[in-house]
Protein backbone atom coordinates (compact mmCIF):
# COMPACT_ATOMS: atom_id res chain seq x y z
CA UNK A 1 0.00 0.00 0.00
CA UNK A 2 2.92 2.32 0.65
CA UNK A 3 4.10 2.00 -2.96
CA UNK A 4 0.60 2.73 -4.24
CA UNK A 5 0.32 5.89 -2.17
CA UNK A 6 3.90 7.00 -2.81
CA UNK A 7 3.28 6.83 -6.54
CA UNK A 8 -0.12 8.54 -6.25
CA UNK A 9 -1.93 5.52 -7.68
CA UNK A 10 -4.51 4.85 -4.94
CA UNK A 11 -7.28 5.82 -7.37
CA UNK A 12 -6.70 2.53 -9.18
CA UNK A 13 -7.79 0.72 -6.00
CA UNK A 14 -10.64 3.01 -5.02
CA UNK A 15 -12.05 3.34 -8.52
CA UNK A 16 -11.60 7.11 -8.71
CA UNK A 17 -9.05 6.65 -11.50
CA UNK A 18 -11.29 5.17 -14.18
CA UNK A 19 -10.41 3.62 -17.51
CA UNK A 20 -10.26 6.50 -20.01
CA UNK A 21 -12.39 6.65 -23.11
CA UNK A 22 -9.80 8.40 -25.29
CA UNK A 23 -7.32 6.05 -26.94
CA UNK A 24 -4.41 8.41 -26.20
CA UNK A 25 -4.92 8.08 -22.44
CA UNK A 26 -5.57 4.32 -22.38
CA UNK A 27 -1.92 3.27 -22.66
CA UNK A 28 -0.90 5.20 -19.53
CA UNK A 29 -3.92 3.95 -17.61
CA UNK A 30 -3.29 0.31 -18.62
CA UNK A 31 0.38 0.59 -17.66
CA UNK A 32 -0.28 2.12 -14.25
CA UNK A 33 -3.14 -0.27 -13.52
CA UNK A 34 -0.89 -3.22 -14.40
CA UNK A 35 1.77 -1.86 -12.07
CA UNK A 36 -0.70 -1.68 -9.18
CA UNK A 37 -1.99 -5.16 -10.05
CA UNK A 38 1.56 -6.54 -9.89
CA UNK A 39 2.14 -4.92 -6.49
CA UNK A 40 -1.06 -6.46 -5.18
CA UNK A 41 -0.30 -9.91 -6.57
CA UNK A 42 3.24 -9.86 -5.22
CA UNK A 43 2.08 -8.75 -1.78
CA UNK A 44 -0.10 -11.79 -1.13
CA UNK A 45 0.81 -15.38 -0.41
CA UNK A 46 1.96 -17.07 -3.67
CA UNK A 47 -0.44 -19.97 -3.17
CA UNK A 48 -3.38 -17.52 -3.06
CA UNK A 49 -2.46 -15.25 -5.97
CA UNK A 50 -3.49 -17.45 -8.96
CA UNK A 51 -7.20 -16.87 -8.27
CA UNK A 52 -6.65 -13.13 -8.80
CA UNK A 53 -4.28 -13.25 -11.80
CA UNK A 54 -6.94 -13.13 -14.50
CA UNK A 55 -8.93 -10.23 -13.08
CA UNK A 56 -9.42 -7.18 -15.28
CA UNK A 57 -8.10 -4.41 -13.07
CA UNK A 58 -6.37 -3.53 -9.82
CA UNK A 59 -9.73 -2.43 -8.41
CA UNK A 60 -11.24 -5.84 -9.21
CA UNK A 61 -8.39 -7.57 -7.36
CA UNK A 62 -8.61 -5.13 -4.45
CA UNK A 63 -12.38 -5.57 -4.12
CA UNK A 64 -12.17 -9.37 -4.31
CA UNK A 65 -9.46 -9.51 -1.65
CA UNK A 66 -11.42 -7.08 0.52
CA UNK A 67 -14.59 -9.16 0.29
CA UNK A 68 -12.78 -12.39 1.01
CA UNK A 69 -10.49 -11.30 3.82
CA UNK A 70 -12.14 -8.29 5.41
CA UNK A 71 -12.33 -8.54 9.16
CA UNK A 72 -14.72 -5.64 9.69
CA UNK A 73 -17.33 -6.39 12.31
CA UNK A 74 -15.61 -9.63 13.32
CA UNK A 75 -16.75 -9.30 16.91
CA UNK A 76 -15.38 -12.67 18.02
CA UNK A 77 -11.86 -11.83 16.87
CA UNK A 78 -12.07 -8.33 18.36
CA UNK A 79 -13.16 -9.88 21.67
CA UNK A 80 -10.15 -12.23 21.62
CA UNK A 81 -7.76 -9.35 20.99
CA UNK A 82 -9.33 -7.26 23.77
CA UNK A 83 -9.07 -10.22 26.13
CA UNK A 84 -5.44 -10.83 25.18
CA UNK A 85 -4.55 -7.17 25.73
CA UNK A 86 -6.24 -7.15 29.17
CA UNK A 87 -4.43 -10.32 30.22
CA UNK A 88 -1.03 -9.26 28.90
CA UNK A 89 1.59 -8.52 31.53
CA UNK A 90 5.10 -7.18 31.27
CA UNK A 91 6.62 -10.22 32.94
CA UNK A 92 10.28 -10.47 31.96
CA UNK A 93 9.91 -8.17 28.96
CA UNK A 94 11.59 -4.80 28.80
CA UNK A 95 9.22 -1.87 28.95
CA UNK A 96 9.86 -1.15 25.25
CA UNK A 97 9.09 -4.77 24.23
CA UNK A 98 5.96 -4.85 26.40
CA UNK A 99 4.71 -1.57 24.96
CA UNK A 100 5.48 -2.78 21.42
CA UNK A 101 3.47 -5.98 21.94
CA UNK A 102 0.59 -4.07 23.48
CA UNK A 103 0.62 -1.48 20.69
CA UNK A 104 0.51 -4.27 18.11
CA UNK A 105 -2.64 -5.67 19.74
CA UNK A 106 -4.21 -2.21 19.76
CA UNK A 107 -3.42 -1.81 16.05
CA UNK A 108 -5.02 -5.18 15.33
CA UNK A 109 -8.09 -4.11 17.28
CA UNK A 110 -8.24 -0.86 15.31
CA UNK A 111 -8.44 -2.90 12.10
CA UNK A 112 -11.75 -4.37 13.26
CA UNK A 113 -13.37 -1.00 13.87
CA UNK A 114 -15.72 0.41 11.30
CA UNK A 115 -15.30 4.01 12.50
CA UNK A 116 -12.27 5.64 10.92
CA UNK A 117 -11.43 8.95 12.58
CA UNK A 118 -10.68 11.75 10.15
CA UNK A 119 -10.36 14.72 12.50
CA UNK A 120 -6.86 15.10 14.01
CA UNK A 121 -8.17 15.24 17.59
CA UNK A 122 -10.08 11.99 17.02
CA UNK A 123 -6.93 10.33 15.71
CA UNK A 124 -5.26 11.00 19.05
CA UNK A 125 -8.27 9.64 20.94
CA UNK A 126 -8.52 6.48 18.88
From TrEMBL:
Superkingdom of the organism of origin: Eukaryota
The name this protein goes by in its record: UBN2_3 domain-containing protein
Organismal lineage: Eukaryota, Viridiplantae, Streptophyta, Embryophyta, Tracheophyta
Pfam families in the record: Retrotran_gag_2
